[in-house]
């Protein structure tokens, strides 16, 4: 019987295994391409075998079912410290172990081997290969210990006994490419461990959220905040919330009950449509300590930017990603269209980017600035002689959110209003970009533009922006733009490919957004767009009637 490839895809729920497959078994392949460098990559990423599986703790001796464990190997151990791993896909038949206890079908072999003092398995078994890579003693059926050279040769044979493919394009790739893909998947899955329930997730996001929060075994159920807290407390786990959609006392109640919170929000490369327009997210962030837009307390992103060791390889990946984003012309909501406005050639030009007045990024990261009107007045005060163009937020412009300013009010402080020019082209044409806490400031930094910040967004305080708000004492480390990109676009968010529905990297998301790949237009999205147009019509009509 042909063995499954050592490097293989997790069983992503709802995804055809043939779509998700990154390898297929093949006989008679050469081992010449299997280098020690590849082994180092595998160990660093901890991928291979069922790396997404159960993680039993306290097991010191591990054996594959059918391989006897000598009695002397178990001296001083209790049954719970001796684990018998069923044969792959055995079906979990009820069998009693003479020594030790049976583990669940589908365990993470890296967790098992790393804590074990001895492994009992055939040399080409996943357990034995990982034992050899980690330097743990591996014994065969006769009780003899395998030499490290024997285990490494078995690992080369297993890795060579497969052909590898890019699951997003179908193109053939080498094993190193697959290891990098599995490493991203492992990071995604590991980040979801210990979440007992999800609350506040809009019903039209839930399909995507199930994929985003899958932990290798299951996705958390969607429950009310009260029921979610009860489940999380009972299981000693976390509750995932969409902060703006749960009761305001949820976080304090969780703290009182000793329940940790994981906040879920849209990522920075989101989709080809507005969230307020009910387009499901292609990217989210899951933050265990805070959330990126709340400057009043630490967040996972802030801590990452303050402490991460940015390796040359990671910074180079970020540089290439940044160039890809800029070349593709994508922003948070995809590609842009429209007619560029005329800018005066003989004056300093400034772009002032509006936001949603009641958005949490304004409330928690606005540093006391009171919405769009206050922001616009501050821009004029900071740039008294500049030609200022005001850009309203797309959700406000679409009629979905608060923050609308009449043209007359805007023109008391600005020289022009624009809502149709390609935003990134406009960003690159002006002399300065002013933001409160808008993501446009980050997108402008990626394009090498000068940015003045009136609030305290995640990208302020690192030496890349002119900061008008009081700086946070938690920041102050100097970063370059590619280190910022590495943290904000590679390490912090999760991405979901709109074509395969598999977790993917930011590079593929940029390509999908640039090519127009997107989930289908639903009746709900069409209804939401009509609702926004009606609301905007009523707002403009009221302005007209009241002069």
TrEMBL record:
GO terms for molecular function: transferase activity. It holds the Pfam family Capsule_synth. GO terms for biological process: polysaccharide biosynthetic process; polysaccharide transport. Keywords: Transferase. InterPro entries: Capsule_polysaccharide_synth. The keyword Nucleotide-binding does not apply. The keyword Transmembrane helix does not apply. This is Beta-3-deoxy-D-manno-oct-2-ulosonic acid transferase. It comes from Sphingobium yanoikuyae (Sphingomonas yanoikuyae).
């Amino acid at each position: 019987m042909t063995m499954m490839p050592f490097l293989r895809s997790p069983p992503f729920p709802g995804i055809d295994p043939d779509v998700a497959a990154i390898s297929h078994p093949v006989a008679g392949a050469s081992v010449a391409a299997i280098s020690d460098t590849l082994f180092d990559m595998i160990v660093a990423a901890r991928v291979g075998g069922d790396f997404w599986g159960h993680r039993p703790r306290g097991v010191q001796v591990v054996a594959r079912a059918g391989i006897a464990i000598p009695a002397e190997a178990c001296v001083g151990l209790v049954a719970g410290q001796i684990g018998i791993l069923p044969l792959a896909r055995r079906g979990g038949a009820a069998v009693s172990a003479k020594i030790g206890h049976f583990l669940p079908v589908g365990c993470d072999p890296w967790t098992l081997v790393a804590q074990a003092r001895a492994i009992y398995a055939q040399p080409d078994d996943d357990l034995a290969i990982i034992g050899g890579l980690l330097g743990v003693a591996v014994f065969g059926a006769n009780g003899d210990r395998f030499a490290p050279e024997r285990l490494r040769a078995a690992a080369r044979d297993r890795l060579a006994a497969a052909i590898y493919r890019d699951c997003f394009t179908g193109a053939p790739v080498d094993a190193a490419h697959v290891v990098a893909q599995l490493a991203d998947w492992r990071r995604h899955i590991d980040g979801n461990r210990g979440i007992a329930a999800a609350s506040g997730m809009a019903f039209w996001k839930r399909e995507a959220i199930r994929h985003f929060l899958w932990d290798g075994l299951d996705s958390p159920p969607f429950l009310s905040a009260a029921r979610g807290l009860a489940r999380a407390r009972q299981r000693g786990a976390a509750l995932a919330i969409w902060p703006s959609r749960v009761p305001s006392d949820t976080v304090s109640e969780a703290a009182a009950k000793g329940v940790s919170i994981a906040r879920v929000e849209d990522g920075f490369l989101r989709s080809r449509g507005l969230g307020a327009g009910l387009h499901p997210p292609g990217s989210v962030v899951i933050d265990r300590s805070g959330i990126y837009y709340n400057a009043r307390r630490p967040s996972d992103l802030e801590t990452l930017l303050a402490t991460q060791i940015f390796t040359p390889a990671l910074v180079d990946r970020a540089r290439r990603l940044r160039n890809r984003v800029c070349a593709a012309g994508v922003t948070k909501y995809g590609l842009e269209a429209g007619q560029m406005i005329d800018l005066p050639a003989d004056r300093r030009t400034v772009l002032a980017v509006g936001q949603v007045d009641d958005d949490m990024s304004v409330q928690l990261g606005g540093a006391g600035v009171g919405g769009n009107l206050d922001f616009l007045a501050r821009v004029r005060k900071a740039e008294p002689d500049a030609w200022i163009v005001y850009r309203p937020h797309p959700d406000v412009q679409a009629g979905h959110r608060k923050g609308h300013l009449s043209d007359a009010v805007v023109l008391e402080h600005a020289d022009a209003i624009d809502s149709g020019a390609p935003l990134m082209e406009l960003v690159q044409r002006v002399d300065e970009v002013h933001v409160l806490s808008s993501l446009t400031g980050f997108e402008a930094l990626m394009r090498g533009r000068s940015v003045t910040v009136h609030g305290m967004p995640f990208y302020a305080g690192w030496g890349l922006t002119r900061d008008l708000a009081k700086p946070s004492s938690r920041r102050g480390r100097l970063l370059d733009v590619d280190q910022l990109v590495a943290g904000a676009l590679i390490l912090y968010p999760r991405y979901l490919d709109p074509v395969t529905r598999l977790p993917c990297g930011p590079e593929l998301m940029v390509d999908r957004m640039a090519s127009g790949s997107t989930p289908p237009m639903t009746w709900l999205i069409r209804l939401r767009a009509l609702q926004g147009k009606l609301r905007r019509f009523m707002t403009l009509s009221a302005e007209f009637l009241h002069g």
